[in-house]
């Protein structure tokens, strides 16, 4: 009987799985029956963002945490698909840090070319899953969000690719309930324009705090305070930005910090990360992990230890993104089809423990980039995913991190070279700090309005 593969989620990870099978088909292999469920009306996951907050048009939790003016926070050369280059997609070199819409277009380009849309059931949410040990089958209950009809599907293999940056982790702080200004989690942030002239407090010290903070600076916030739990980010912030240790409590509009300082704020943004949450899975198949580079219980970061018919893609914290999801999807495909033999449970556990031990000893961000590079190398070496120069990408990550430390407002203006095509990125017509229209049209065609030629004023400034 033909293998039946279910995929939950058609973001970059789920699409990588579709593409992995398509690549095998193009090489003449028989491929399984595939069905992918996507709760939104289009694919792209986080990159298919929305203006909505809370619930979407179907009454489901809004998935994407992305917002207006979000640009890639790492060089695009670090995430490039090795079987579909930026040159192939755009037909010309582009800059290294494109806005969301440009990357969304790139993700879509590859799967549209691969003709895999036929496998995806849109507007269909996975609700419930059971596994029958005797028959080794998954039964997945899904709901068609257009008709509200539920149906069940039976699969031999199940791929979980629902992402892990959409269920907020929102800690309680004493007095926050009576803070008179706006309090929101980064998941609900849609754009910083409304923070013009405001005094903002960001709690958290990772990518969201950094980027929402600097978006707010770009849009004219009066001041930005970043409150950290473990360690400050330590960038050379603009003059209106400071870092403080953790908030101890709020009293009215005043936040008190653990170093005894305090400040009055108009709004608080909880940039406190996200939870792994898989409400459609029973607890024994549901990954529980903090946001780390190597979650436990997944062999090669992909195969569920207690049930090797179950696969997770993209469950890691991410230096690498799209190309890592590809490497995982190719690996998962080959495990599903038997092209890769799995070792025993004990040997798999020993392998996981080696990675966890190494993870626990990582001294700094450079070592983290090397760690994930080595992880990718293992996956790619095991499959026919087109190899690329992983050491060169690891160096790109290190260059990028140094650029951030040198110039937190300017690192997105730097240029990097593709390891897939050798193409050097081109300088964008407008510095990130001055770019006030993040549309693909403006990005690609670059009219003079927000160009760095001093001839015209940026849109937002003109509007003030
Ligand atoms: P997602 O993109 O989250 O996609 C998961 C999909 O599963 C969604 O389409 C969702 O609708 C669907 N789904 C969820 N639950 C169900 C269900 N029960 N039934 C059916 N469908 C379901 N990465 C970068 O490389 N560069 C960046 O600049 C960058 N910026 C980011 C900014 C933010 C604010 C966030 C949160 C993440 C960012 N990322 C960035 C990382 C991003 O998570 C990955 O690029 C990528 O989107 C992960 O892909 P995924 O498919 O694993 O998950
Ligand atoms: P994250 O990287 O998981 O960081 C979570 C932060 O919250 C950490 O600093 C953590 O502090 C802090 N935190 C957690 N619980 C806390 C508590 N109780 N009190 C105080 N602080 C607490 O999450 P993220 O920053 O939201 O990033 C998620 C993903 O989004 C990443 O992949 C990132 O690349 C992406 N992103 C990209 C952009 C972009 O510009 N393209 C923008 C935003 C986000 P500790 O360090 O103490 O644990």
UniProtKB/TrEMBL annotation:
Keyword Oxidoreductase in record: yes
Keyword list, A-Z: FAD, Flavoprotein, Monooxygenase, NADP, Oxidoreductase
Family designation: Belongs to the FAD-binding monooxygenase family.
GO molecular function: flavin adenine dinucleotide binding; N,N-dimethylaniline monooxygenase activity; NADP binding; trimethylamine monooxygenase activity
The name this protein goes by in its record: Trimethylamine monooxygenase
SUPFAM superfamilies, sorted: FAD/NAD(P)-binding domain (SSF51905)
Lineage: superkingdom: Bacteria
PANTHER family, A to Z: DIMETHYLANILINE MONOOXYGENASE
Gene3D superfamilies assigned to the protein according to its UniProt record, in alphabetical order: FAD/NAD(P)-binding domain (3.50.50.60)
Names of required cofactors: FAD
Keyword Flavoprotein carried by entry: yes
InterPro entries registered for this protein in UniProt: FAD/NAD-bd_sf (IPR036188), Flavin_mOase (IPR000960), Flavin_mOase-like (IPR020946), FMO-like (IPR050346)
The EC number(s) this enzyme carries: 1.14.13.148
């Amino acid at each position: 009987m033909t293998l039946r593969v279910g995929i939950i989620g058609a973001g970059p990870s789920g699409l990588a799985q579709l593409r992995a099978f398509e690549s095998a088909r193009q090489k003449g292999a028989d491929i399984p029956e595939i069905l992918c469920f996507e709760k939104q009306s289009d694919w792209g996951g986080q990159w298919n963002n929305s203006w909505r907050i809370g619930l979407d048009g179907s009454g489901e939790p809004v998935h994407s945490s992305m917002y207006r003016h979000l640009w890639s926070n790492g060089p695009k050369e670090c995430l490039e698909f090795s079987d579909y280059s930026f040159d192939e997609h755009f037909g010309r070199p582009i800059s290294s840090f494109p806005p969301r819409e440009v990357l969304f277009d790139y993700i879509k380009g590859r799967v549209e070319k691969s003709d895999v849309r036929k496998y995806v059931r849109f507007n269909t949410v996975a609700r419930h899953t059971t596994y029958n040990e005797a028959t080794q089958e998954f039964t997945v209950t899904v709901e068609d969000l257009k008709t509200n009809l539920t149906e069940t599907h039976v699969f031999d293999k199940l791929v979980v690719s629902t992402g892990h940056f959409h269920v907020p982790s929102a800690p309680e702080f004493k007095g926050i309930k009576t803070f008179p200004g706006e309090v929101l989690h980064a998941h609900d942030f849609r754009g910083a324009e409304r923070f013009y002239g405001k005094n903002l407090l960001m709690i958290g010290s990772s990518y969201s705090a950094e980027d929402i903070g600097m978006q707010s600076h770009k849009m004219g916030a009066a001041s930005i305070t970043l409150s950290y739990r473990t360690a400050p980010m330590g960038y050379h912030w603009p003059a209106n930005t400071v870092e403080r240790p953790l908030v101890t409590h709020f009293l009215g509009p005043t936040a008190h910090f653990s170093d005894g300082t305090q400040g009055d704020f108009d709004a608080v943004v909880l940039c406190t990360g996200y939870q792994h949450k898989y409400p459609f899975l029973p607890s024994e198949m549901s990954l529980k992990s903090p946001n780390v580079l190597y979650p436990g219980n997944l062999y090669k970061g992909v195969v569920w230890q207690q049930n090797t018919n179950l696969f997770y893609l993209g469950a890691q914290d991410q230096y690498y993104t799209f190309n890592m999801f590809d490497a995982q999807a190719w690996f998962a495909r080959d495990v599903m089809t038997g092209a890769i033999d799995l070792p025993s449970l004990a040997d798999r556990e020993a392998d996981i423990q080696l990675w966890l031990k190494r993870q626990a000893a990582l001294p700094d961000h450079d070592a983290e980039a090397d760690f994930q590079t080595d992880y990718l190398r293992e996956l790619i070496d095991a499959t026919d995913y087109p190899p690329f120069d992983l050491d060169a990408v690891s160096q790109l990550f290190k260059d990028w991190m140094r650029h951030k430390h040198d110039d937190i407002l300017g690192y997105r203006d730097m240029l990097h070279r593709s390891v897939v095509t050798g193409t050097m990125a081109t300088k964008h017509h407008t510095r990130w700090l001055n770019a006030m229209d993040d549309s693909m049209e403006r990005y690609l065609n670059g009219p003079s309005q927000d160009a760095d030629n001093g001839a015209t004023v940026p849109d937002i400034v003109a509007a003030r």
